[in-house]
Design a protein that fits this description.
7% helix, 18 strands, 3 helices, 2 domains
Length: 268
């Protein structure tokens, strides 16, 4: 019974030119800035940061990516970047096991990106640099890879920005990551896989790991307070959750969430 109440009210990888080949490293910078003329053109903007795709991103296939001028971190794999070009939209880096990766990227509208890890086990930096770039013509469905192994690129988009741990006034603890929401109250735990979100509108869709049903969570910042309303629950699919009407937001402390007050979440 506690579990039911908990669920309802406290749910709480381009368009690229071919880059040049090998360089000789004579400095100690994390990103290589020494260039030796090997007979091929180096991009004029070699290692001129910040790298265009820098950020802490959510990724398709329930992934994440944290990217800056010196690393490309996918959570399960990390490449230490040695060279990149924003103009040609590629980066190469060492995987830490003696192999090298090449990443190509392409814009996805004004706020997101597509990326392709076009090489993931190249024997040398030079091999990664001269790997043919991925085809950015149709990144949603194809272009990443080569030969008989070609697939869609990975999309990068803004996270919902709510990662962390919270408590509510009912004593439940809510642990939120980019793709999960887990609510614990005593010995009862409810776990949800997050589906999609709209940061501007303040909602997140969540699929109950146990029942397979969907909910729509609305999050509202009022001053320093964060309020949550699980105003649409037990829905048959995510489309229904997205289409669900938004709750009233004028007085979350007293009502608007299916006739009840919203749940106040306090960051820990």
């Amino acid at each position: 019974m506690i579990r039911s109440t908990l669920r309802l009210a406290a749910l709480g990888l381009v368009a690229c030119g071919s880059p040049s080949t090998d360089t000789t490293d004579t400095d100690t910078d994390a990103v290589d800035t020494d260039v030796v003329d090997t007979g091929t053109d180096q991009p004029a903007d070699l290692n001129k940061g910040p790298i265009a795709v820098a950020g802490d991103w959510a990724a398709s296939f329930m992934g994440t990516a944290v990217i800056d001028d010196v690393s490309w971190d996918l959570g399960y794999a990390l490449a230490n970047l040695t060279k990149f070009s924003n103009g040609e939209r590629w980066a190469v880096g060492s995987n830490g096991d003696g192999t090298w990766s090449r990443f190509d990227w392409a814009a996805d509208g004004p706020d997101g990106w597509w990326y392709c890890q076009q090489a993931y086990d190249a024997a040398t930096e030079s091999t990664a640099l001269t790997t043919p770039p991925a085809d950015a013509t149709d990144p949603e469905t194809t272009g990443c890879g080569a030969g008989d192994t070609v697939f869609g690129w990975t999309r990068l988009f803004a996270t919902h920005g709510r990662n962390g741990q919270y408590t509510d006034d009912g004593g439940a603890t809510h642990t939120v990551t980019t793709w999960t929401w887990q609510t614990t109250n005593g010995t009862d735990t409810a776990a949800f896989a997050l589906g999609s979100w709209d940061v501007g509108a303040g909602w997140i869709t969540a699929k109950d790991d146990e029942s397979g049903t969907w909910s729509r969570l609305t999050l509202l910042d009022v001053g320093d307070d964060l309020w949550m309303c699980a105003g649409a629950v037990d829905l048959v699919d995510e489309a229904a959750a997205i289409a669900a009407p938004a709750p009233a937001t004028d007085a979350p402390e007293t009502g608007g969430c299916q006739g009840e007050a919203w749940t106040k979440l306090t960051a820990q």
